Amino acid sequence: MTKYYEFSLRFDVSNCGKNQDQIDDSLFEAGCDDALVRHGRHGEINITFERQSSTALDAMQDAQKQVLLALPQAKLLEVKPDFVGPTDIARVYSITRQRVQALVNTKLSHVHPFTSVGNTQIFRLANVIDALDSQGRHHADEAIREAATAAMQLNRQNL
Amino acid sequence: MKRKKHTSKCIESAIVFAESKGWSIISGGKSSHCWGRMLCPFGARNKECRCGEFCLVSIWGTPKNHEQHARMLIKAVEKCQWRGQND
């Protein structure tokens, strides 16, 4: 059975020697004509995919291969959704940020944040979803859970 | 000068939606596949913009699936955290 997975790949393209137009054309011709390409200020691109596949990991690895075919010098920086703050968690569960903060202090108190930036705690989305699933009250979309788990796995290999 | 219309109806309406939220549309330059790019109104102005790094979004001329591409463009506008503060 196939599902639709939504994920993003962030690449450093500063060593590719191509301008934005050439990057877009290379990606399109390599098969990313279904993706949303966003250009950053410092030679970075963020490519969002919504792809049908049997597993999230397959979808992400296929997409990564296509990008590297188009831009061989590109360096994978991050696979999303993985690192999340309260605002992102709120969006996944369609609840308020305040509610997430309350959950972090109660049901999620045993989930250790990956790190903190200023006052914001950063979690791995897969850990948050697993913790909330085991409590039985909040259910995330199965495709999001799979994407978060696969993204965490790829980030562990790459970072 | 008035910008040219996108040939796909659903993508054109996504572009009109982005424009209604203050995004500007710039040309795709010399690219053959990129019809144009939409630029977030807050990224350049607001240093605190969280997604300011990625506020230049490429719009394909002939995406694989027009409806899906239009939906993704709308999502990109809706996800901008500054949207709503100036609406």
Automatic annotation (TrEMBL), chain A:
Q: What is this protein called?
A: DNA-binding protein
Which branch of life, at top level?
Bacteria
What is the organism field in this record? Idiomarina aquatica
From TrEMBL, chain B:
Task: Specify the superkingdom.
Answer: Bacteria
- Protein name (Swiss-Prot/TrEMBL): Uncharacterized protein
Look up and give the organism this protein is from.
Answer: Idiomarina aquatica
